[in-house]
Description:
With 327 residues, the protein is of the alpha/beta class. The protein is built from 12 helices and 10 strands. Helix content is 41%, strand content 15%. The strands form 2 sheets. A 7-stranded mixed beta sheet has the order 1-7-6-5-4-2-3, sandwiched between helices. β5, α7 and β6 form a beta-alpha-beta unit. The two termini are 22 Å apart. It binds pyridoxal-5'-phosphate.
Amino acid sequence: MSNENPFGPSPKALATIKKYKNNIHCYPSWIPETLKEKCAIYNNVSPHNISVSAGSYELINLITSFFVGEDEEIITFDNTFMAYNYSAKRNGRKCTIVKMSGPHYDLNDLVPLCNKKTKAIFFANPNNPTGTFINHLSLRKLLISIPNNIFVISDEAYIEYVTDGSYPNSVELQKEFPNLIILRTFSKIYGLAGIRIGYGIASKDVVEKLDQVRLLRSVNALAEKAGEAAIEDVDYVNLSAKHNAIERDKLFTELTELGFNVVPSQANFLYIPFNNNHDKDKVVQALAEQGLIVCDLTIFGHDKSIRISIGTQDANLRVIDCLSKIN
Ligand SMILES: Cc1ncc(COP(=O)(O)O)c(C=O)c1O
């Protein structure tokens, strides 16, 4: 339901956790240098450009509280990951919300809202919950259009599931635009959501600042070791991504054929807007009666829509079977 990997944790990470568990009486490193280096190699950047964190939430919170001053502002979208707005609120920062007219971001709506106080723009790419994405040209255009003192935070929690070739090469863009901060997580395809591990790719200057303000040893020893093993678990990532792409296509086609208004997705979930809450509730309830839990987006303030995570082949078949009987 929270878009976790239906196959569980990366086997390499799990084996490492089991092996390392007898050492948890020892403190983790001050800075997880080995994991930093592995993330750097994986992304073809310098370790100076990597900030390892206790999941993306930690980086979102650090950026909001330390990079955005008390009288400065954040901009995000209304139908994106709620953590950006929540983090702004918790830290007492003003957050301007761009209203999306459909499931896609329109970056042209965002640029005129930037003012002297704007310090950070947050979005998820691909977006949660809609699964839509910003392509390379649009992201580059945004970075050219706005002043370079505004941080652009591209949260790429679902990047491993992307199959569209026009998705941004954000690491290259980051080299060109030092105000771009990329967020990555081990919570999704690597299956490590419970252990809290992620990282940011940013300019050396931004990384130094993030590492200074981070709670010392916020990344626990098991998370550090699990991350080191997971990033090398290429087979597991490939297998999970392939399964997702095949099942995402199948589920999309079958749900569309059943008459649902499914939005094409680049993530590991599908977004379905309904005409009214009655139709949505009927679907949520029918699935729940079969033990199939989907995310009713009313809890995030968006009524009339749901998000279905791509599950195992069996779970997806059960979704189709259930919905073919009510439509
Ligand atoms: C867009 C996006 N970013 C970040 C996260 C959470 O990342 P983490 O578990 O690394 O804090 C999620 C989880 O749902 C998400 O959808």
